[in-house]
TrEMBL record:
This is Efflux RND transporter periplasmic adaptor subunit. Keywords: Ion transport, Signal, Transport. GO terms for cellular component: membrane; outer membrane-bounded periplasmic space. It holds the Pfam family HMBD. Residues 133-262 form the CusB-like barrel-sandwich hybrid domain. GO terms for molecular function: transition metal ion binding; transmembrane transporter activity. Belongs to the membrane fusion protein (MFP) (TC 8.A.1) family. It comes from the Bacteria. Residues 40-64 form the Heavy metal binding domain. SUPFAM superfamilies: HlyD-like secretion proteins. The keyword Repeat does not apply.
Length: 437
């Protein structure tokens, strides 16, 4: 080979090596600048604060930490992922040892077991509507005298309430007296038809007095004395309390006017309201425990006697009713009672109530899938007690769920999902892109 050829070959080799080095440096510089430009830092205690350079959080002064790039698994479980546990708008969170210590994350193990559906609510003592008696008159008249002075007064069955003067009632008494006289005359007469007609007239006038609620003893007294009575006394139909008094002495009243309402409190209702999602746990005949604030430590047992067929549209609650015998009237309308209903036992995966986060759109938990790795998981809650929740789908027994600091994890999860959603086109352009040869 000639000297010229060897010289040309050496030059060509040198050019090739130089070109390769330049290209490699250009690629390395571009990647380094892109990575540096895309690096983000945030505060572990205030994840919403994000900076493009390291430093301190202006809120709490804590050192900012680098937001690590999401792995393929994180992306699959985060926003837009297709994993069965994916939660839209949330991403998997992986913490450093320092972050795990600062956040105070605590977990509990989901276990399979039984959940007794306990419904707790507050009931109110009310009068039994079937034991209310309205006292009214069937004839117009005026109140000559009142024997009950005020509402709330206790009365006994048959106790006089008022004396009523009624011209119409007085006229009916006189008709009854004339019918009595006609019947007496017909008894001594020869005509059977006259006796029959007199008897029918007597029965009709007596029946009219009965329809006007004239007591039987008053009718018998009119017949024996052959004298009318100026006023008729209206008596209490049941024993109880006067819950409404609508008249005063000398007052003119019309037929059908309600004069008194007497409430029999020997048996009362206790009505309670339960939330819509608890309605499936109650049924007629179901037993309940009731306690009264005025009798601490004493427990009453009752059964549901009625479920109202509609919900309150304002409170979204269903009313249930219990019935109680009330000797001595110790239970008074308006009192409150604490009600505890024991529902049926359901089986499933149980977790502490603190593990469940309700976003308003869905319910989710954070599952620990590694030493410092936490995955958001959408779940369906089938029931709750005071401290436990039954998860019917989305979680398996044996998995660890976060029960403390899950709100901090949720903030971090949302932030990472938002950063993952930023399109790649928003990254700064490669500064060497126009200088490559």
């Amino acid at each position: 080979m000639s000297r010229t050829a060897r010289w040309l070959g050496a030059c060509l080799s040198l050019l090739l090596v130089t070109g390769a080095l330049v290209t490699s440096c250009a690629k390395h510089d571009g990647a380094t600048h892109t990575a540096a430009a895309a690096a983000k830092y945030h505060c572990p205690m205030h994840p919403t604060y994000v900076s493009d350079r390291p430093g301190s959080c202006p809120i709490c002064g804590m050192s900012l930490t680098l937001i690590t790039a999401p792995t393929d698994a994180d992306t699959a479980h985060g926003a837009g992922g297709t994993s069965s546990g994916a939660v839209e708008g949330h991403a998997v969170v992986e913490l450093t040892e320092r972050e795990l210590e600062l956040t105070g994350v605590r977990t509990a193990t989901a276990q399979y077991g039984e959940l007794a559906s306990t419904v707790r609510t507050v009931g109110e003592v009310k009068a039994d509507e079937t034991r209310l008696r309205h006292v009214h008159t069937k004839v117009p008249g005026s109140v000559e005298r009142l024997f009950v002075s005020f509402s709330g007064q206790e009365v006994r069955k048959g106790q006089p309430l008022l004396a009523l003067y009624s011209p119409e009632l007085l006229a009916t008494q006189e008709e009854y007296l004339r019918a009595l006289q006609a019947s007496d005359r017909a008894k001594d007469g020869p005509s059977d038809d006259a006796r029959r007609a007199a008897a029918e007239m007597l029965d009709a006038t007596r029946r009219r007095l009965e329809l006007f609620d004239v007591p039987a003893d008053v009718i018998a007294r009119i017949a024996s004395t052959r004298r009318t009575t100026r006023t008729i006394t209206l008596d209490a139909p049941v024993s109880g309390f006067v819950s409404a008094k609508e008249v005063f002495e000398g007052m003119q009243i019309e037929a059908g006017t309600t004069i008194f309402t007497v409430t029999d409190l020997s048996r009362v209702w206790i009505e309670a309201e339960i939330y819509e999602n608890e309605a499936r746990h109650v049924r007629v005949g179901q037993s309940a425990r009731l306690t009264l604030s005025e009798e601490p430590g004493k427990v009453y047992t009752a059964r549901i006697t009625y479920l109202y067929p509609f919900l309150d549209t304002d409170t979204r609650t269903l009313r249930v009713r219990f019935e109680f015998d009330n000797p001595g009237q110790r239970l008074k309308p308006g009192m409150y009672a604490n009600v505890e209903l024991q529902g049926e036992h359901d089986e499933g995966v149980l977790v502490p109530n603190d593990a469940i986060m309700d976003t308003g759109v869905r319910q989710l938990v954070y599952v620990q899938t590694g030493d410092r790795r936490f995955e958001p998981r959408a779940v369906t809650v089938g029931g709750r007690t005071g401290d436990q929740a039954l998860v019917s789908s989305g979680l398996e027994a044996g998995e660890s769920v976060v029960v403390q600091a899950n709100f901090l994890l949720d903030s971090e999860s949302r932030l990472r999902a938002a950063l993952q959603a930023v399109p790649a086109a928003t990254a700064p352009a490669d500064p060497h892109a126009g200088h490559r040869r």
